[in-house]
Amino acid sequence: MGVEERRQQLIGVALDLFSRRSPDEVSIDEIATAAGISRPLVYHYFPGKLSLYEAALKRASEDLAGRFAEPHDGPLGVRLLRVMRRYFDFVDDHGPGFSALMRGGPAVGSSATNALIDSVRQAAYEQILSHLGVTDAPPRLELVVRSWISLAESTALIWLDGRRIPRAELEVQLVHDFAALAAVSAAHDEDMATLLKKMVEDEPADGPFAELVGRLIALGV
Amino acid sequence: MGVEERRQQLIGVALDLFSRRSPDEVSIDEIATAAGISRPLVYHYFPGKLSLYEAALKRASEDLAGRFAEPHDGPLGVRLLRVMRRYFDFVDDHGPGFSALMRGGPAVGSSATNALIDSVRQAAYEQILSHLGVTDAPPRLELVVRSWISLAESTALIWLDGRRIPRAELEVQLVHDFAALAAVSAAHDEDMATLLKKMVEDEPADGPFAELVGRLIALGV
């Protein structure tokens, strides 16, 4: 194998191990064994576990950021639901590593890992704005989108802790949460109200946004 | 000064400095100068900056956890609004330190600091459950409360980044967000619907929950 090929293989092996267990618990010896090479050879390609962890996290971050990319076709609610499915696929595949990373801790809190987390959040933020047809978000829209992204993270983390709610329910719920947070903001601000009206006017009667309204009316609170 | 008195004084001085600037930027020399003692004397009481930081964070955590304590009197929405005001008072007073801590980073991501953050979240969680009259929360209620707590954190962090929205607006908005997230969950689950009905039935016509409904109806989306 060439140098770059070997590096990529090691990153893949490490990412797989870091995804299945907390990165703190994964040793270089284990990575070497899984890759079928010696421990010194691992160090030949990566100076230490942190640099291998950061390379694996970089690959995972690019993967996750890519999952937010969604064609600009069809109702907004349906697009967001497709993104949520891909997001939970990722969380499902990388559970323990995702939890350890997002909960912070000594091994994972380097400035490089924080920058990677921020890059994924930024990619998600920019994707959502592009679907809303907004280039320069006013502060209240920025707040709704960024705080909803953090809500999606915490929802995923809570789900991973025991998986006591079916993930399909949470995927729909997060789409509904987005509409609900936007509606609360619209209740406080005229520009957000205009945006919300534009957001829902093209939504079909059987789409996720209309479904929420129907469910709330049926609830009769 | 006695040993314990001196320690408490140093913690107070350090907390003040760690609150005003990112803890990374605060030196032991500065803390010594602010306390009016020599650098070696600081080390006599605390082995290093991390232990002093952790002691200051412990005091701040206890302060913040205490702000969630609210008498069980009057409408739920009004109680939560009072808590949100005290929460933003805290965030306002400790802005740079709060941001640095919650955004993670090499100096602040120790397991002791993470445990302190979790203890505050747990105190907030238990307070909210007690106001809802629930001792053993089912998974969906736990999700709503815990994810709303993380929403309050991210809202405060986004607010600190430029303070472009009046904090009084965000305090009310977070109360409304709680009702909105509970309503979305109620739209998906019968037990949550029962809880939501109980939650709003005693709310007065001029309380925050009714205000949200009124605003949304006026919006006519």
Verbal overview:
The structure is a homodimer of 221-residue chains. The first copy, chain A, is an all-alpha fold and 221 residues long. Chain A has a single domain (60-219), classed as Tetracycline Repressor, domain 2. In chain A, 76% of the residues lie in helices and 0% in strands. Chain A has eleven helices and no strands. The longest helix of chain A has 22 residues, at 111-132. The N and C termini of chain A lie far apart (65 Å). The model of chain A has no long low-confidence stretch (mean pLDDT 92).
SSE topology sketch:
The structure is a homodimer of 221-residue chains.
Chain A: H1 3-20, H2 28-35, H3 39-45, H4 49-67, H5 76-93, H6 95-102, H7 111-132, H8 139-160, H9 167-188, H10 190-201, H11 208-219
Protein name (chains A, B): TetR family transcriptional regulator
Pfam families (chains A, B): TetR_C_46, TetR_N
GO molecular function (chains A, B): DNA-binding transcription factor activity; transcription cis-regulatory region binding
Number of strands of chain A: 0
Which class best fits the helix and strand makeup of chain A? Answer: mainly alpha
Using the CA coordinates, give the radius of gyration of chain A: 20 Å
Total separate domains of chain A: 1
Our estimate of the beta-strand percent of chain A is under 5%
Helix content of chain A: over 70%
- Flag low-confidence runs of chain A: none
Protein name (chains A, B): TetR family transcriptional regulator
Domain HTH tetR-type (chains A, B): 4-64
GO molecular function (chains A, B): DNA-binding transcription factor activity; transcription cis-regulatory region binding
DNA-binding region (chains A, B): 27-46
